[in-house]
Amino acid sequence: MQEKREKILNEALKIVPFEGWTNKALQDATLAAKLDKDYHKVAFPNGVSALVDMYLRSLDEKMLSKLSNNKKLKNLKIREKICLAIKTRLEISEDDKAVIRKTLSYFAIPYNHIESMSSIWKTVDAIWYAVGDNSTDFNYYTKRTILAGVYSSTLLYWLSDKSKDHCDTWSFLDRRIENVMQINKAKSSLNDLLCNFNYFKQPNN
């Protein structure tokens, strides 16, 4: 089953740049994979949404594989790890920009909004996992929510970037990470200030 699913996906990636992620693309990819015309109903019972998810999760897996083989990763600072992970994730898709654009168009359809949010969450969760984050408290959600914004904006910038080796995108990513770092520092300073203010407000016993 998995091998046949992969064959359908591989054929779909040849069709999607022209037709987008549609049920017809799924049907045509099934026939191109030399499978029974209705086999896609067995391989992807949830339809084209399952095919899209399979594609994006395969990119996440490739990213994790490349990062796990990068011996320099463990010696980097956390912000450097995040930058490297996002860069790796985008570089994997370098030859599939047309597919990525169609994927964004697919997610832009209102009834696919929840699916879009879920997909981005899975990617940023994979990134945090890759850089060694094991948080389970409220920080788990905060980190992933912030990274989702950084990743999404960088992805959009990358799609239209014409600079050599996407150097403008990586500069944009550095700035976005720096902005987040500055916001976190400001929040930390504000929390310290409020704690001190509350302490001095307490009546003497």
Tell me what the structure shows.
With 205 residues, the chain is mostly helical. It folds into two domains: 1-45; 53-201, Tetracycline Repressor, domain 2. The protein is built from nine helices and no strands. α1 (2-19) packs across α6 (97-108). The longest helix is centred in the last third of the chain and has 35 residues, at 167-201. The protein starts with a helix and ends with a helix.
The average pLDDT is 88
Radius of gyration: 21 Å
Please state the second-level CATH architecture of the largest domain.
Orthogonal Bundle
Largest sheet, strands/sense/barrel: none
Tell me, what is the CATH class of the largest domain? Mainly Alpha
Q: Give the termini distance in whole angstroms.
A: 73 Å
Q: Kindly state the number of beta strands.
A: 0
Q: So how many helices?
A: 9
What class would the helix/strand composition place it in?
mainly alpha
Query: What is the succession of H and E elements?
Result: HHHHHHHHH
Shape type: globular
Low-confidence stretches: 185-201
Percentage of residues in strands: under 5%
What is the CATH topology assignment of the largest domain?
Tetracycline Repressor, domain 2
The domain count comes to 2
Helical fraction equals: over 70%
